Task: structure prediction
Amino acid sequence: MRPCVNSSKRRSRSEELRASVIIPAYNAEKTLAQCLSACLNQTLPAHEIIVVDDGSTDDTARIAASFPVRYVRQNNAGPASARNRGAACAAGDIVVFTDADCIPEPDWLEQLLKGFADDTAAVGGTYGIANPGSRLARMIHQEIVDRHARLPGEVDFLGSFNVAYRRDIFDSLHGFDEQFREASGEDNDLAYRIQDLGGRMRFMPKARVAHYHPERLWPYLRTQMRHGFWRVRLYAKHPRRVRRGDRYAGLAELLLPPLVLGLAGSLPLAFVFEPIRWCWAGGAWIYLVLRVPLPFRLARRANDSTMAAFFVVAALRDMARAMGMAFGVGHCVLVRWKRAASNLP
Result:
C-alpha cells in the first residue's frame, strides 16, 4: 500500500491553508440563505465560497446572487457531479463541502482545518439540529449523536454534509464517483478509496453544522429506501466492505434490514407451519436483541422517555432499507446479465 500523503510537503497550521467551501444546491430556496450567511460569518474566513446550482427550478439562483459568493450552474446531474464541478472551479488547498440545508456554526471551518495534520487526507465533523421542534427530527438527530459519540478520532468514513479534503488527494482520486447520482453512497465510496491509498481521515466533533432533519415519516422512509438501493451498489464496487461495514454504520446495519423484512413477510406462514414458527421466533429474538438497545440508549442520552418510540421508526426504516436493497440487488444482477449477454458470440 503506498502512502497518499507526503508529509514533507504539508502545512499543518490551519491559518496557512486556503479553504474553498463548495455547496451543491438543488431547489434550495428555503435554506440556502441561512447556509450562506453562516459560511460568510466564520471565525476563520474561507478563501472562497462556491455554490453549484444543480439545475434548480426555484429561486436558488436569485438567492445565491444576493451573496458575495461564486455561482456556478449545471444541468441536473446529482450532488456528486455538483461537488466535482465546484472542486474543478476551486482555487484552495483544501476543498470543503457542506449541503445547502446545513447551517455551519461560527467556528466550523476553523475546527475542520485544525484536523489537518501532516498525514491527514480528509477531516469531517458532525451534525447539530436546525429543527428541534419536530419529534421525528429530534429522534433522528439523537441517533446521529449516539453514533458520532462512539466514533474514534481516526475513522474510515466521513459524510459529505461536513467534510474537507486535501485538494491534491481529491483530484488524484477524481473526486466523487458520479455514477452515484443521488445523495447516497458517494461519500462512503470516496472514503474507501482514500483508505485504499493509505490516506488517514479524522473526525472532529467540534466542527458542527446544524441540519434540517426530516419531519415527516413517509419522506424519511423513501430516503431510507434510496439508501438501501445505493448501499448495494456501494458494496458491489467495494465487496470487501460487506464483511465489516464501516465505523459509522457497522455490520448490523447491513443485516437487520433483510432480517426484519423476512420476519414481516414470513409472519403469515409462521401461524400455519410450526417449524417456520420456531424459526420466526428465533429471528424475532435476534432482531430485538440487536435493535431494542438503541431507542433506550437514545432516551437515556436525551433524558426523554419518548425517544423509546424510535424502535418503531427504526423497524420501519429497516424494512424500507431492505426493500431498497432488494431493488439494488436486482439492478446489479440485471446489469451483470446484460454484460454477460453482450459478450456472447
Remarks:
- Residues 252-342 form one domain.
- The chain has twelve helices and nine strands.
- The first strand starts at residue 19 and ends at 25.
- The mean pLDDT is 90.
